[in-house]
Amino acid sequence: MDRRSFLKTSALGGSAAAASTLAAPVYAQGKRTLTMVTSWGRGLAGVFDAAVKTAENITAITDGQITVDVKAAGELVGAFEVFDAVTSGQADMYHAADYYFVNQHPGFAFFTGVPFGMTATELNNWYYHGNGMAMHDKLGEIFGLKSFLAGNTGTQAGGWFRKEVTGPEDFNGLKFRMPGLGGKALGYMGASVQNLPGAEVYQALASGALDGTEWIGPWADEKAGFQEITKFYYTAGFHEPAAGLSVATNREVFEGLTPAQQAAIEVSAGHANVWNLSQYLNNNGAALERLKAGGVKVLEFPDSVWDAFGAASEQVYAEFADDELFAEIFADYRASMAASSGWITDSISAYRTQRDRVLG
Fold first, then answer.
1. What is the DSSP code (8-state) at residue 155?
2. Domain range holding 45?
């Protein structure tokens, strides 16, 4: 029996047994502090803000009955150790990008961003009015987590490169930082893919340990200082057309809260999700203009590279096609994306094209 099967059998079976023997849930009484570990360096633009906003919301909505102690990456556990910290009970909750945990299950990628996947609007459609939230919960339950979206960076940039990309062959041997399924796709294109925490990327790029990196978008990238190292910036990427961030609470801890407190976590996460997306979109335009003024060359990948991205992405999806839960999430995700995209293209996209033409 593989690890996922074991976890699914033990976690779900144990929950069912407990439910049959308890007449009523027992909730912890009085004020309490929950420890939130994060994958973000303290003050890291946008992503750490989303964690703090979620925590502040929870405390405010519960009128101080729950206080959330937010830990930056490295203060209690490392950036990529937050998943294990919460599933083991070392911490109560984490805030992270769930695609950091595709080695636990590749389905986690859909709740951050996947190659040629959903925009932020489409992701929210699927999550709140389709089956997305239920599938996030189904996946989290296997690992003893109760998860909600709690942030979104919006469409992410293609990244920073030491030299211009002229064709797919330029990725062969390229040392590039990209997590999730997008990183796996670059691996199929011959890149040497690195998965580094955000707080470590600048030094790796500056030292030459990386030939290039993606991070988020103009505002966060400017804050990180990548323009000090290289001036070649690709503003459209294939890997994360939206990047959801998640808050995940240890399921036993979550079930020990009152229904009102549980709702406070869900509502706090939902507010942080919208607030954080607006934060990025509000700041990216001005930041991009500052980068241009500072000599950054804004570029687009040639069509041959986009075609290679597409072929490599399909190889990644085929790699996980035999995993039943991955296949279930993938099929539902793609169906929701197709259902949303037609109207968005015919209405919003067409309107914005005409607005930009008329207003100049």
1. S
2. 3-11+28-152+242-282
Query: Which tens digits make up the pLDDT trace of 245-278?
Result: 999 999 999 999 999 999 999 999 999 999 999 9
Number of domains, the chain: 1
β-strands 93-96, 32-38: how paired?
parallel
- SS3 label, residue 341: helix
Identify the burial level of 338 via C-beta atoms within 10 angstroms of its C-beta, where 0-12 means exposed, 13-18 middle and 19 or more buried: exposed
Contact 291, 222 (CB under 8 A): yes
Residue 67 lies in a domain: yes
Encoded amino acid at 300, one letter: E
Burial class (CB in 10 A: 0-12, 13-18, 19+), 243: buried
Tell me if 203 is assigned to some domain: no
CATH of the domain at 86: 3.40.190.170
User: For the segment 183-216, what is each residue's pLDDT rounded down to a tens digit?
Assistant: 999 999 999 999 999 999 999 999 999 999 999 9
Q: Is residue 70 part of a domain?
A: yes
Residues 261, 29: Cα–Cα separation, whole Å: 11
- Residue given tokens 């405390």 in the structure block: 59
Does residue 188 belong to any structural domain of this protein? no
Distances in Å between the alpha carbon of 72 and those of 46, 49, 85, 298? 13, 11, 13, 32
